Amino acid sequence: MRKTETTSTEIKQLAYDTGFDLCGVTSPEIIPAAAERYRQWLQQGYHADMAWMAASQERRSDPSSLMEGVRSVIMLGLNYYSPNAETMPVGHGRVSRYARGRDYHKVIGRMIKALLRKIETTINRDAVVMPDMARHFKWWVDYGPFLERTYAERAGLGFIGKNGMLINRSFGSWVFLAEIVTSLPLEFDQADPKDHGRCGKCRLCIDACPTGAIVEDGVIDARRCISYLTIEHRSDIPAELAAKIGDNLFGCDICQEVCPLNQKRATLTAHHDLLPGKGVGESLDCHKLLNLGSREQFLTLTAGTALTRPKLDGLKRNARIVLDNQDQAS
Ligand code: B12
User: Fold this and answer.
1) Is residue 327 packed enough to be buried (19+ CB in 10 Å), middle (13-18) or exposed (0-12)?
2) Is a pLDDT exceeding 60 seen at residue 1?
3) 168 CA to centre of ligand 1 in angstroms
4) pLDDT of 175-203, one tens digit each?
5) C-alpha 215 to ligand 1 mean position (Å)
6) Which of 207, 255, 247 minimizes the C-alpha distance to 230?
7) What angle (nearest 5°) sits at the alpha carbon of residue 141, between those of residues 138 and 147?
8) Which residues are catalytically annotated?
9) Strand 92-95 and strand 248-250: pairing?
10) pLDDT tens figures, 122-157
11) Tell me, what DSSP letter sits at residue 175?
C-alpha cells in the first residue's frame, strides 16, 4: 500500500457516501492525560460493576495495542436524534433516544462493512500489492476497548462537554461513535475542539442530573448514573436512587436535553433504522412489560434493539420503579 496525500480525504468522502455524518482521522498514539483520567476514574470506582471497563484498562488506553502495525484511527459519527412527542401516555416509561430504533451496533456495523468494501476497491485501484483487508483494518462500535470520545475529539468530531458527551457543531451530542484502526499511514486531521463550542460557565447538565452523577466537569460516576442503573446494573436499585429515576425506563437523556448547544443543534436523523417507528419507540407500557411471561414474549418486543441488554428481569425492575415514581407524583 502506498501513502497518498489524498487518501484521508478519499476515505472521508467514502464514509460520507456510505451515510456517515462525521468522519475524522487521527493518530493512534496514547493520549497520556486521557489515560490518566481513565485510571483515576477506575480508581474512584466510578465504573460501578462494569468489571470489563477495568479489565481492558491497558488496551483501552493504547489503540496501538489493538492490532499489529496500527498507524491511523478513523473515527466515525452518526446522528441519531429524534424529538419527543409532547406527552407520554399514563403508565408508560421513557426509552432514551439512542435506543428507540434498531440496535445501533448492528446498523453501524453494516455501514462500516459497506465502507470497508469501498475502501478496498479504492486501495486495489492504487496499490501495487493487494492488501489483506482483515489484517489491515479492525473496527468497533461502542463495545471495543477504545476511548471513543477522547479519540473522536482528537479527530475533530467535537469537544467533550461537562456532561462528558462529545458535542459536535452540527448535531450536538446526539451522535453515535465508532472507529476503524488501520495500518494505512493516513494524513491526520488538525483539530481544535473549540471549533465545536465550549461549555463556558454553563453547568445546567450538572445541576439537572437528578442523581448527581456528574461529579466533576466531564466525569460521570456510573454508580449514580440513571443510564447505568437502568441498563447495566444487574440487581436491585437502592431506594434513594430509584426514587430519582422518574419516568426513565431505559437509559436517560437529561444531561443532553438540558444542554443549550444540543437544543440548538438537534437535527432529525436521516437514518431511518434509528427512528422510533423502527424499534420499540419512544416509550413502553410498564404494565404490559410486567405481564410479559416468557423470554419469547420479551424477544418479540425487543429483538434487534438495544433493549435486550438488561434482559426481562432488568426491564421489569425498571417498570416497577417508574410506576412507583408515577404513583408518588400523582
Ligand atoms: C462505559 C460507558 C457508559 C457508562 C459510563 C459512562 C462514562 N461517562 O464513562 C454508562 C452506562 C453510565 C454510560 C452512559 C451513557 N452512554 Co455510554 N459508553 C460507555 C463506553 C462503553 C465507555 C466510556 C468510557 O470509556 N468511560 C471511561 C471514562 C473515563 O471515559 P469518558 O467518559 O469517555 O471520559 C474520557 C473523556 O471524556 C475525557 N475527559 C474526562 N474528563 C474530562 C474533563 C474535561 C474537562 C475534558 C476536556 C475531558 C475529559 O477523558 C476521559 C478518558 O479519556 C462508551 C463507548 C466507548 N467504547 O468509548 C459509551 C459511550 C460513551 N456512551 C454513549 C452514550 C450515547 C451514552 C448515554 C447518552 C446513553 C443514554 N442515553 O442513556 C449515557 C450518557 C452518560 C454520560 N453523560 O456519559 C456514547 C456517547 C456518544 C457521545 N456523543 O458522546 C458512547 C461513545 C457509545 C457510542 N459508541 O456512541 N455509558
Assistant:
1) exposed
2) no
3) 15
4) 999 999 999 999 999 999 999 999 999 99
5) 14
6) 247
7) 85
8) 142
9) parallel
10) 887 776 666 688 889 999 999 999 999 999 999 999
11) E
29 and 172 both lie in a single domain: yes
> Given this model, what pLDDT does residue 129 score?
63
Q: Whose CA is nearest to atom 39 of ligand 1?
A: 218
Backbone φ/ψ region at 265: left (φ over 0), alpha (ψ -120 to 50), beta: alpha
Q: 140, 173, 196 — which closes off a domain?
A: 196
Nearest CA to ligand 1 atom 75: 227
Q: Per the domain annotation, does 274 fall within a domain? A: no
**Structural domain for 290, as ranges:** 204-267+280-325
Dihedral in degrees, nearest 10, Cα atoms 189, 194, 196, 197: 180
225 pocket-lining for ligand 1 (C-beta < 6 Å) = yes
What CA dihedral angle connects 309, 314, 320 and 326, to 10 degrees? -40
Q: How many structural domains are present in the chain?
A: 2
* pLDDT at residue 4, as a whole number: 46
Integer Cα distance of 302 and 289 in angstroms: 11
- Grid cell digits, residue 148: 471513543
Q: Pocket of ligand 1, candidates 44, 75, 142, 223: which has the most ligand atoms within 8 Å of its Cβ, to mutate? A: 142
Q: For the purposes of burial, counting CB atoms within 10 Å of the CB of 328, is it exposed (0-12), middle (13-18) or buried (19 or more)?
A: exposed
Phi, psi of 22 (to 5 degrees): -135, 145
Cell of 302: 425487543
39 CA to middle of ligand 1, Å?
A: 14
What 8-state DSSP symbol labels residue 79? E
Q: Do 160 and 286 share a structural domain?
A: no
